[in-house]
Design goal:
Order of helices and strands of chain A: EEEEEEEEEEE
Structural class of chain B: mainly beta
Helix content of chain B: under 10%
Number of strands of chain B: 11
Structural class of chain A: mainly beta
Distance between the termini of chain A: 34 Å
Order of helices and strands of chain B: EEEEEEEEEEE
Radius of gyration of chain B: 13 Å
Radius of gyration of chain A: 13 Å
Strand content of chain A: over 45%
Largest interface: A-B, 22 and 23 residues
Helix content of chain A: under 10%
Strand content of chain B: over 45%
Shape of chain A: globular
Number of strands of chain A: 11
Distance between the termini of chain B: 41 Å
Largest sheet of chain B: 6 strands, mixed
Oligomer: heterodimer
Shape of chain B: globular
Amino acid sequence: DTAVSQTPKYLVTQMGNDKSIKCEQNLGHDTMYWYKQDSKKFLKIMFSYNNKELIINETVPNRFSPKSPDKAHLNLHINSLELGDSAVYFCASSQGETGAFFGQGTRLTVV
Amino acid sequence: GENVEQHPSTLSVQEGDSAVIKCTYSDSASNYFPWYKQELGKRPQLIIDIRSNVGEKKDQRIAVTLNKTAKHFSLHITETQPEDSAVYFCAASHSGGYNKLIFGAGTRLAVHP
């Protein structure tokens, strides 16, 4: 069973559209994250939720809105997509002071 | 905030050689240092980690060392194999930050048969 799963795996969309990425973890972890990996492979944290509460919100445009309906799910909604939003978005989860487990990633391409 | 620098950005070795990747961090409060391996098109996977109360940790061919005074930590891979080829990321976080992992820029390791 996949520990951290996100959908879709690939997303191609036009500028200006709104899209969502979904993430679910079955590890029982309390903390979930969204990371963005750009074309140079740099991994940067965007958001972190602990037990459904937002605890980390990095300098991310407010077009990005995370939502955590329960501690096993963390979705990412993006409004008014721009070319610069093209990247791979990784969901991850962790428990306590342990390393984060990553989902398989969503490759977003804005055209 | 925390800043993590990683060197080298690319590393090419012959199969059987050792590979060393080094990272430095800026926040003295950081106390957790994981290493991730990312193969092409795949997710980053945790391969080893170390906490600030430990100076060295080994797991088969992989070892990590930590120098808290100098604020740097290193990944050592011995007897490299072609399947070790990947991008390796170091990261740092502190317990008060809910594991807000700050990543280095990555090292692309190529192991040639």
